[in-house]
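Section 4.2 – Deliverable D4.2 (structural model, holo form)

The reporting period included a commitment to supply a predicted holo structure for the target in complex with zinc ion. Inputs used:
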Amino acid sequence: MFSLILFIFGLTFGSFLNVVSFRYSPEKSLFSFRNLLGRSHCPQCGKTLNWYELVPVFSFLIQKGKCRSCGEKISWQYPLVELASGFIFLLPLYFYSPLINGQWTMVFCGF
Ligand SMILES: [Zn+2]
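Output (structure tokens):
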């Protein structure tokens, strides 16, 4: 259960990495937080995405990798980065499983 939460947290972090990597471009200000915090949108038609279209990996699979509005293909980079990030977050769990099974489980679960 703990690993699932960690995995989902990793997926979310990967989703955030995507946003940062895609929205950062030389012609836009690096310090434009409004740009970073703005709602995600389709790069093709500009449609603002709803929350259910922003669920890491799952939205991509449900929409078959296409924009719901214009049908433009969504880059595979999104789900791949999200998945990779999810697994990277799981790695420490396997390397330090004795530690995790001991006191750290209690720390993370709030016992
Ligand atoms: Zn679109």
